Amino acid sequence: MALNREVLILRMVLFMALIGLSVSSFISTEVFQTERSGRSLAEMHCPVDFKHKNYKILTSKCKAPKYYGRLCCPAFKEFACPFSDVLNAVDKNDCASIMFDYIDFYGKYPPGLFFTKCVEGSFGLRCPDA
Question: Which InterPro entries does the entry link to (predicted)?
């Protein structure tokens, strides 16, 4: 009986670990709600230096006047997915706000563009497996 309990506990732990891994492969919808925070970039904190990232991944593919989802969303994923862990930690840092401020600065995109074009369900935006 004790062995069955240990096996059950092990299975539960593995299941929870798999759920955690699968959730981390998304960019949460909460990230998109941080756009346009209104605070100065100097007041914000993020361990990633978004100021010096290469935004050409986005700006070369996602262009006005027509922002096609088939072009903008893969470019957004290519840029943002490597940072999904820090972006999803919206309660611990300002990375999402900072990233969107710089995306808007370099791309001059309309507010909410990536949310309206790219969110893929209730979890947010699915990132490719690393």
Answer: LLG1-like, LORELEI-like
| Mean pLDDT, residues 38-60 taken together | 84
What type of residue sits at position 5?
Answer: R
pLDDT in tens, 104-119: 999 999 988 998 899 8
Region at 124 (left for phi over 0; alpha for psi -120 to 50; beta for the rest)? left
Separation CA 31–CA 80 (nearest Å): 11
pTM of this structure = 0.70
- Three-state DSSP string of the chain: CHHHHHHHHHHHHHHHHHHHHHHCCEEEHHHHCCCCCCCCHHHCCCCCCHHHCCCHHHHCCCCCCCCCHHHHHHHHHHHHHHHHHHHHCCCCCCHHHHHHHHHHHHHCCCCCHHHHHHCCCCCEEECCCC
| Gyration radius of the chain over CA positions | 18
φ/ψ of 90, rounded to 5, equals: -65, -20
Cα-Cα-Cα-Cα dihedral sign, residues 117, 82, 25, 74: positive
Report residue 69 CA to chain centroid gap: 16
